[in-house]
Design goal:
Blueprint (H helix, E strand, L loop, with lengths): L1 E7 L3 E7 L6 E8 L7 H13 L2 E8 L9 H17 L3 E5 L3 H12 L7 H19 L5
Parallel strand pairs: 1-4, 4-5
Antiparallel strand pairs: 1-2, 2-3
Helix pairs in contact: 3-4
Length: about 140
Amino acid sequence: MRIMGLDYGDKTVGVAVSDPLGITAQNLETITRKQANKLRKTYARIEELAQEYEVERFVVGLPLLMDGQEGERARLCREFAQDLERRTAIPVEMCDERLTTASAHRVLDEAGIDKRERKQYLDGIAATYILQGYLDSRPKNE
């Protein structure tokens, strides 16, 4: 069973996918759009990837505040997840994504990626962290 991890942002969606056994997450791509509220092509691309990889579940990062509360960004992510589930009929789960972007920045620091070039990698790496965290938190017999 493959699972797709998504890091939803204002103008990008980082995409990662699990291996067929659901053990490891791999970065796939970052989908970009020109305007935050123009999602038709973004949903279409996610649907294409879900078909190609035979995805049976989506995991969308939920950007909670450090105190665990949900803010505006979390509300937008929940709306995105609900719309995605409605469009694809594939179950969507939300996963706490606190500190995934900070972790992605650390990886890029260690790799020596110039700060001006980071945006193209950041969301995909964050999606990979979101998905790997989800995979690691599941019971091993699932």
